Amino acid sequence: MRVQVAIIGSGPSGLLLGQLLTNAGIDNVIIDRVDRDYILGRIRAGVLEYGTVGLLDAVGAGARMHREGLVHDGVSLAYAGVKHRIDLKALTGRSVMVYGQTEVTQDLMDLREATGGKTIYNAGNVTPHDFDGRPHVTYEKDGTTHRIDCDFIAGCDGAHGPSRIAAAQNGMKGFERVYPFGWLGVLADVPPVDHELIYANHERGFALCSQRSNTRSRYYVQVGLDSKVEDWSDDAFWDELRRRLPRETAEAMVTGPSIEKSIAPLRSFVAEPLRYGRLFLVGDAGHIVPPTGAKGLNLAASDVHYLFEGLRDHYLEHSDAGIDSYSARALSRIWKAVRFSWSMTQLLHRFPDQGDFGQRIQEAELDYLSNSAAAQTALAENYIGLPY
Ligand code: RFL
Ligand code: PHB
After folding, report:
1. Strand 287-288, strand 258-272: pairing
2. Which residues are within 8 A (CB) of 236 and not within 5 positions of it... i.e. 6 or more apart?
3. Protein residue with least CA distance to atom 10, ligand 2
4. What pairs with residue 38 in β-bridges?
5. SS3 call for 119
6. Distance between CA atoms of residues 365 and 356, nearest Å
7. What CATH number does domain 5-72+96-176+267-345 carry, 1.10.3720.10, 3.40.1080.10, 3.40.50.300, 3.50.50.60?
8. How much is the mean pLDDT over the chain?
9. For an engineered disulfide with 79, which of 39, 201, 220, 332 has Cβ 3.0 to 4.6 Å away?
């Protein structure tokens, strides 16, 4: 097979890039290690920046999001037993969209199918080759090795895929921070405790009240790295969550059986550069952020925006300026989101060595934030998403 662009990975970044290319008449194929149902079973992000919403609209995948997604004009921070609202809309003129990554992925998969996009699922041993010369991707399926020749390879295959590995073998530099805790997440068919998200700082650790709809909630509590999902009964989770929230919030909480429960470790990682000849790292393949800032999926979308502009200009304008500047343009936005996610993590979590002094410093910063329009504007600008 020969295509113009071979995309490794059928997560949000691969699907969004694939759709932009298809709509522009640029031939592409997506190759993934697993199948559609497996990908749709992964419960992940929930908050979309206005830029991500705009991109989904631009490709034609926004209709259900506007029908079923929840527009949030604000977000709350809770600390020392009190909740403080940050009015995103009043401070920036923008809102965010609460719509699950699973739904985004499903909408993009449905659109790809409807527009005749090619996807190869259940491909084994997917490997990018010769990206400085004649780029091609090989994979195994049904006992045979297949080869796809292409002009460019988009590595949209997440943090553990073959694109990051290939980059590491070709001079990539990685910048990393590992945090000494993880998030235990629970999904439950109970009404959300608040109409907006609550990020809570507490001496026992961070907690987050998020949601997927008016009848489905997504909650998280910070846990130690040695914690296992099996150690947490539903009751133990609800008790711990309530302990970390202001009293009225805890009392208003409706609990019920979990429909999903998982633990994710937190880390920050950035790969530099994001381009290796004709191979590009996109989304989680190029960077990881702790979920505290709700930036991972949104950064995947902005990477796609920059790379698509470069590829479009290459094919339609005969200019390589966009491809040549992809890594620098994307990294400049990525590092700002990495900084924001790191600072939100720093502000809201309990660190093993922070002690009472560290707790008071966090509370002082949260107090300053709740009383300063300037500080709230800085947070709001980052939360709704920096411009592309
Ligand atoms: P994905 O979604 O990981 O997709 C990569 C795809 O590549 C495939 N793949 C391979 N294919 C072929 N060969 C191989 N060897 C392969 N290895 C992997 C995989 O099967 C998969 O289909 O990366 P992508 O597209 O870059 O998207 C990134 C986002 O998924 C990620 O950044 C977000 O989920 C992060 N994130 C959040 N982001 C937000 O913007 N807002 C949020 O509120 C938010 N909350 C979260 C999150 C991530 C979380 N976890 C579990 C890490 C909450 C959590 C708990
Ligand atoms: C989620 O709903 O899963 C979610 C929301 C906000 C975050 C992280 C995760 O910052």
Report:
1. antiparallel
2. none
3. 294
4. none
5. strand
6. 14
7. 3.50.50.60
8. 97
9. 201
**Residue 43, pLDDT above cutoff 90:** no
Task: Dump pLDDT digits (tens) for 141-153.
Answer: 999 999 999 999 9
Predicted confidence (pLDDT) per residue in 114-142, tens digit? 999 999 999 999 999 999 999 999 999 99
Alpha-carbon distance 303 to 329, whole Å? 9
Domain segments of the chain: what residues? 5-72+96-176+267-345, 180-265+350-384
**Taking a C-beta distance cutoff of 8 angstroms, is the pair 209, 192 a contact?**
yes
Distance 357 CA to ligand 1 centre (A): 36
Q: Is 292 in the pocket of ligand 2 (CB under 6 A)?
A: yes
Report helix, strand or coil for 332. Answer: helix
* Cα–Cα distance for residue pair 348/79, rounded to 1 Å: 9
Residue ID of nearest Cα to ligand 2 atom 5: 46
Strand partners, 152: 5
* Exposure on the CB side of residue 194, measured as CA atoms within 13 A: 24
Structure tokens at 172: 């990539």
Residues near 173 by beta carbon (within 8 Å), at least 6 away in sequence: 271, 272
Residue 11 CA to ligand 1 centre (angstroms):
6
CB-CB contact of 280 with 128 (8 Å): no
Domain covering 180-265+350-384: architecture: 2-Layer Sandwich (3.30)
CA distances from residue 342 to 126, 179, 191, 223, 379 in whole angstroms, order as listed: 32, 10, 30, 17, 13
Beta strands across the sheet bearing 198-200:
82-87, 74-79, 198-200, 207-211, 217-223, 173-188, 258-272, 287-288
User: Which ligand 1 atom lies nearest to the CA of residue 185?
Assistant: 55
Ligand 2: atom nearest CA of 98 is 2
Contact 31, 8 (CB under 8 A): yes
